[in-house]
Amino acid sequence: MAEPHTIALQKGENAPRAALESTQIRVLVSALGARLCGVYVRDPKNGQETNIAVNLIDDAAYLDQDSYIGAVCGRYANRIEKSRYPDENGDIAQLAANEGEHHLHGGPDGFDRRLWTISDQTERSVTFKLTSPAGDQGYPGNLSASATYSLVADNRLRLEINATCDQTCPVNMTSHAYWNLTGKFDHSASDHVLQINAEQWLPVDEKLIPDGPAQDVAGTGYDFQKPAKISANLPDAKQGFDHNFCLTGPRGELRQIATLADPTSKRSIKLFSTEAGLQFYLAQHFNDAMKTENSVPLHRSGGIALEPQTYPNSPNREDFPSPWLKPGETYRHVIEWKFS
Asked: Within 10 A of 329 (CB to CB), how many other CB atoms are there?
């Protein structure tokens, strides 16, 4: 496997950052993990800003944690069972394990821990680029990736992720942003109201690996077809929320897939994606040692991750949407967040 890409950042030191700004929002992104470090929405009445994207005090804090907060995850977001899969020749490709025997979010030295290069920047867009050599975390082929953040409207942020590889490789990249629309990260986000355009979800085993076919959400705590308060569904969701939802609509087409709203502040996000699945995770692991840019300690459930992607463990599941990127092809995933 390729050598780890060691990053040396001292406390208080940050990788290069870029700010995108419109009349309604200000977005801060970092070259460390092509990471979303803040989305500051403005109150139309008084112009005051409130950050609704969970962040940490500095880049050293991001590297100290295994929470992927705000980062672009790759080469493969989510889990690959036992860190291996059969390649196109039937041989077993062995990946680096970082969640017990399983492979999570690209491995112990995934794209979230890399210094991406800023290749292009304007007042309303920035592009990060990254090269992943053959053998990186066990993956085959030389992969080139880019992640472009752009303000496509005054209240709408787009992330377009592209990748090519000179060997057939599973690729599944997404943003691991956590949201708390109250802007109070020391408070639980479980009273947010969530709606997901999905009729089915994937049950998982105790290691969060899908362990069977998709099941209907109707009649379960995983039914968010109509807007529902997350905390109200939680008692009927036996394993909490860290599951893939099988989205309606054609993969490859940018469509609205979910809405997240906070009844108190009246803030909301409409989420759009071109992918087949959505991983919904209500944080259960934040702690007082994790502090925001304003030194506010994170509540255990202070953030909600909504990660559009293909299904978990799809390199080992022929019944799941294909994760394969072949030479000559371009992987493309578009995510958009509309804030109001």
From this structure: 13
Q: Given 81, 275, 307, 336, which residue is catalytic?
A: 307
Residue in 102, 176, 243, 333 annotated catalytic: 176
Mean pLDDT estimate for the chain:
95
State residue 330's pLDDT score: 98
Give residue-wise pLDDT tens across range 56-113. 999 999 999 889 999 999 999 999 999 999 998 889 999 999 999 999 999 999 999 9
Measuring CA to CA, how many Å separate 8 from each of 11, 36, 72, 131? 10, 20, 20, 19
Determine if the pTM surpasses 0.90.
yes
**What confidence score (pLDDT) does residue 9 get?**
65
Instruction: Let me know if 307 is a catalytic residue.
Output: yes
What architecture is the 17-339 domain classified under in CATH?
Distorted Sandwich (2.70)
The H or E element containing residue 194 is: strand 193-196
d(CA 106, CA 126): 23
Average pLDDT over residues 276-298: 96
The answer to whether the beta carbons of residues 29 and 36 sit under 8 Å apart is yes
Q: Say yes or no to pLDDT of 13 above 80.
A: no
* Helix ranges restricted to H, 201-242: 230-233
The Cα–Cα gap between 311 and 278 comes to 8
Query: Angle at the Cα of 298 (from 294 to 303), degrees rounded to 5?
Result: 110
d(CA 333, CA 330): 10
What would the two tokens of residue 153 be?
């409207």
DSSP 3-state of 6: coil
